[in-house]
Design goal:
It is built from two helices and 21 strands. A hairpin with a 5-residue loop joins strand 7 and strand 8. The relative contact order is 0.22.
Length: about 400
C-alpha cells in the first residue's frame, strides 16, 4: 500500500464511496435488479433474481446463462466551510460494472449456479486544497485525495427443491480485492487481498404469493502492503446483509414485490493498521457506523408475450452518523427511481435494459470538534464541515439464453 497506508486508512474510515446504496455497497447485480430497484429476493420467475436469491434456481428448469453491464455516472460536490467554492469530488469518468450468472439442473431436485459480480466499490477523488484546515504543509498528509476499490465476488451456489413450492440454497463467496487506493495529497497508497465468506437463502411459493430471504455473512478481507519500507497489514470489513421479501402475482401480467434489507455497517467501528513483522499497531481509525435499512418496491408487467415492462422505487438509509463523518464516504439517505424492460428474441434469447436515478439527500455537516481531537484522524472533526451533494445515473444492458 506504498508509504502511508496508515494515513490513508485514518482519513478513509472505509475504502470507497457509493452513491446508489448506503455505504459503499453496489446492490445492482443484475439488469432486472437495476430495473426494479433490487426488489427481487422473493421472485421465482425472473432469471435476474438469482444473484439476489440463489434458491430461485430451483424454479428454473434446464440451463441458463445471463450477463450484463451497468454504467454509473456519479456526481459528488462539496462546499467546505472556509473554502473558496464548490468542489467536485469524483473522478469525472463513467464506471462500468459487469455481472454474470450461469445455472443448470443437475438432478430433478438439485441445481448449481455461479454468480460473478462486483457488490462493493467505486471511488471519490478530492483535489488539493479542498478542505482548508488540511491544506497546510503540516496537515497535507491527512488531506484525502483518491479513494478507490476494485473487487469481484465469485459466488458458486447449490440449491435443493424440497417440493414443488419450497427451495433452499447455500453458497461460498470468494471476495477478491484487486486494488485498494487510499491516496492523500502527500502520499500514494495501494494494496490487495482476498477472503472467503458464505451465503444462504430460501424461497417459498404459495398460490399467487411468494416469500424469500437471503443472507450473506460478514467478511474481513486481509489487505497486505507497505508503510514506507515496512510491511504492514489491515483489513477491509464487508458487512453481513439480510434481505427478506414478499411478492404478489396480482394478475396474469402484473407482479409486485416489497423487500426489506438490513446491512451491518457496524463492521466499520474501527480499522487497525499493524506492522506485519511484530504486530505493533500503527494506526487506529474509528468510524462508528450503525446498521442501516433499505425498503424496496418493484413491479413487472407483461405487456405482450415478448415484452415485459419493469419499474421500482427504494429508500436507502445511511448508517453513517456525524460522530466520525468522513469525506471518503460522505454518505446520506437516498431515493432510488428505476424502470426498464425485457424483450424475448427467437431461439430462447432475451435482451434487457434498465435505468436508475439515485437522488441523494444533501448533507450539511457541522461540528465544533477541532482537527486533532482524534490525533491525525480528521473523521468527525471540523476539518470536514460543509455541505455535500451527490447523485447518480445508472444505465444497464443485458442478455440471457436458455440452452
Amino acid at each position: 500500500m506504498k508509504h502511508n497506508l496508515m494515513i490513508g486508512v485514518v482519513c478513509a474510515g472505509v475504502m470507497a464511496s457509493q452513491v446508489h446504496a448506503s455505504g459503499f455497497r453496489i446492490p445492482e447485480v443484475s439488469i432486472a435488479g437495476l430495473a426494479m430497484s433490487n426488489a427481487l429476493v422473493a421472485n421465482p420467475l425472473e432469471l435476474g433474481a438469482l444473484p439476489y436469491n440463489p434458491a430461485a434456481m430451483s424454479f428454473h428448469d434446464g440451463a441458463h446463462v445471463m450477463g450484463g453491464l451497468v454504467l454509473v455516472d456519479h456526481a459528488l460536490n462539496a462546499t467546505p466551510v472556509g473554502g473558496a467554492s464548490t468542489v467536485t469530488g469524483d473522478s469525472g469518468s463513467i464506471v462500468v460494472i459487469p455481472n454474470f450468472y450461469v445455472t443448470g439442473q443437475i438432478a430433478p431436485q438439485w441445481s448449481l449456479g455461479l454468480s460473478v459480480n462486483a457488490p462493493f466499490g467505486l471511488s471519490t477523488d478530492w483535489p488539493a486544497n479542498t478542505f482548508p484546515i488540511l491544506s497546510a504543509p503540516a496537515t497535507r498528509p491527512a488531506h484525502p485525495a483518491q479513494s478507490k476499490i476494485e473487487m469481484v465476488n465469485i459466488n458458486p451456489n447449490v440449491s435443493y427443491k424440497f417440493n414443488a413450492n419450497t427451495s433452499a440454497a447455500f453458497g461460498v463467496d470468494y471476495y477478491y480485492v484487486k486494488k485498494v487506493k487510499l491516496d492523500t495529497q502527500a502520499v500514494t497508497i495501494s494494496g490487495d487481498g482476498s477472503e472467503f465468506g458464505w451465503n444462504a437463502a430460501v424461497l417459498h411459493v404459495h398460490g399467487p404469493w411468494s416469500f424469500g430471504a437471503s443472507y450473506r455473512a460478514a467478511v474481513n478481507v486481509p489487505i497486505d502492503g507497505l508503510v514506507n519500507t515496512t510491511v504492514a497489514t489491515t483489513e477491509l470489513g464487508l458487512p453481513w446483509m439480510l434481505q427478506i421479501g414478499a411478492r404478489y402475482q396480482a394478475t396474469d401480467k402484473l407482479g409486485i414485490e416489497f423487500d426489506v434489507e438490513r446491512t451491518s455497517w457496524k463492521k466499520f467501528n474501527q480499522i487497525l493498521v499493524k506492522n506485519a513483522t511484530n504486530g505493533t499497531t500503527l494506526v487506529t481509525s474509528t468510524n462508528a457506523w450503525d446498521n442501516a435499512n433499505a425498503f424496496r418496491l418493484g413491479a413487472s408487467y407483461d405487456l405482450t408475450a415478448q415484452t415485459q415492462l419493469r419499474a421500482g422505487y427504494a429508500r436507502d438509509l445511511t448508517g453513517q452518523g456525524d460522530e466520525h463523518f468522513t469525506v471518503r464516504v460522505p454518505d446520506a439517505d437516498r431515493h432510488l427511481f428505476s424502470f426498464g424492460m425485457r424483450y424475448a428474441l427467437p431461439g430462447d434469447w432475451t435482451v434487457e435494459a434498465a435505468y436508475m436515478y439515485a437522488m441523494v439527500d444533501d448533507r450539511d455537516y457541522v461540528t465544533t470538534r477541532p482537527f486533532g481531537t482524534y490525533g491525525s484522524d480528521p473523521n468527525g472533526t471540523a476539518a470536514y464541515n460543509g455541505k455535500y451533494e451527490s447523485s447518480a445515473h445508472l444505465l444497464g444492458f443485458g442478455v440471457s439464453n436458455k440452452f
